[in-house]
Amino acid sequence: MAERVADQLCEFQDPELWFPGGDCLVHFYEEGQSRRGPSLRLLLAEIESSNCRPLLEISCSRPVPESPSSTASSSSSDSGYGRSPLGARKHKLYIPAPAHLSREEAFQYHLTTRNFFAWMFEKPLVGPRLGEALVSLQERMDAFRPDKKENRDDILAYLDLQGYTDFRECPDHALAVLQFSERFEHRDLEFEAVSRTSKALITRAHLEMDIRLDHVGKSLGNFLEDDLSEAYLGLPDEARGHLERFRSFLHSFY
């Protein structure tokens, strides 16, 4: 199941995470389980410097010689990350989804793996919902990197870098950051996700509600007292007693 989902992701090479000068090929399946090529081409030194030893330990990484055709292709491209020298050896990382996952869960697993490297190389996240992508990224960072405090600081810096904490005319950003901050109890982010205008409107609504409740409380104090009085209706005592009991019932109910 996981291999079929990986095949779907491997039908294309992610252009944002495919550096012609990269020396590490990332596959979303177990070694020997698919004939598809790699989905990502990254720099191994950058991965190793990102303090993600657990990732490297669970992945199969082995150097392979650079083919002449790929070397020529790399030398003619400009990635901004440098170029592979002639005859350079490449490394392969195989990162399969756990075998017990369903098709949809395996797809989400690979998507989060892709987003983990997007964080590493300062690229935007992908996925149907930004909030869920952020939550999954934090969980994957905690799985692949041992220092949770460092993960927290790094993902907060990443949010700023990618503009996800800029909520101006971006309600999707605000909702995503609220979902993320509530999941991991980032109270500072929760506060920032509400704009000044929204805070002012919430405060105003709160005051208006207090005024209304105070007015209703005062009205209930003499609810129907004048309307059902003897002077106003001129009813006999028995009828007025029934109305008084009805008024008392309404008063206690509300």
List the SSEs and their pairings.
Blueprint: H1 2-9, E1 24-27, E2 40-42, H2 44-48, H3 53-58, E3 60-65, H4 68-75, E4 89-94, H5 103-120, H6 130-144, H7 148-161, H8 171-184, H9 187-192, H10 196-221, H11 230-233, H12 237-253
Parallel strand pairs: 1-4
Antiparallel strand pairs: 1-2, 3-4
Describe this entry's structure for a reader.
Helix content is 56%, strand content 7%. Strands 2-1-4-3 form a 4-stranded mixed β-sheet. With 254 residues, the protein is of the alpha+beta class. It is built from 12 helices and 4 strands. The protein is elongated. The protein starts with a helix and ends with a helix.
Jot down its keywords.
single chain; 254 residues; alpha+beta; 4-stranded mixed β-sheet; 12 helices; disordered N terminus
What is this entry, summarized?
By secondary structure, this protein is of the alpha+beta class. It contains twelve helices and four strands.
- The count of helical stretches stands at 12
Main sheet record = 4 strands, mixed
Going by helix content, strand content and strand pairing, the class is alpha+beta
Query: Into which percent range does the helicity of residues fall?
Result: 55-70%
Order of helices and strands: HEEHHEHEHHHHHHHH
Q: Which stretches are poorly predicted, pLDDT < 50 over at least 5 residues?
A: 1-8, 68-87
Shape verdict: elongated
What is the beta-strand fraction? 5-15%
* Global Rg: 31 Å
Whole-number average pLDDT? 77
Please count the beta strands (DSSP E, at least 2 residues each).
4
Strand order of the largest sheet: 2-1-4-3
Distance between the termini: 59 Å
